[in-house]
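#lab-general

N.A. 3:47 PM
ok so I finally got the sequence cleaned up, no stray characters, all 157 residues accounted for. can someone with queue access submit it? mine expired

B.Y. 3:52 PM
send it over

N.A. 3:53 PM
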Amino acid sequence: MEARLNLFANPVAGSLIKHFNAAGKAIADSSLPAATQELVKIRASQINGCAFCTDMHTKDATAAGESATRLHLVATWREATVFTEAERAALELAEQATRIADAAGGVTDEAWANAAKHYDEEQLGALIGIIALINAYNRVNVINQQPAGDYVPGMFG
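B.Y. 4:20 PM
back already:
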């Protein structure tokens, strides 16, 4: 598989990616736990069928010390016992926000209240940001048919 467009060579797409990356830096620098950030990015990428982002974020999480067991169970987090209640709340919020078009009411009050029990306002802002941002990255990569499998942790940072 070959990408439809070289995103970094295209002036508009390259500029867009730079702005996405700047937004990602603001979120990465927040107090939202790094492990939670990666779990959310992985789950949204799985739902959206973004192989490139799934590859990237599972490898980044592994490099940061995340266990293989937890990574293998992200897609089935509801039944898995390896996630904290806070992580489960973040994954629920990520799923509902990622599937926003499938749900008449969008994100439920229950999912929001559960997340708010575990995260302060800064962290909630970071959660909203990371969910929106990974969904944007997913869409760019899926539209572009960005190939997956060759990502090396840190290659874009």
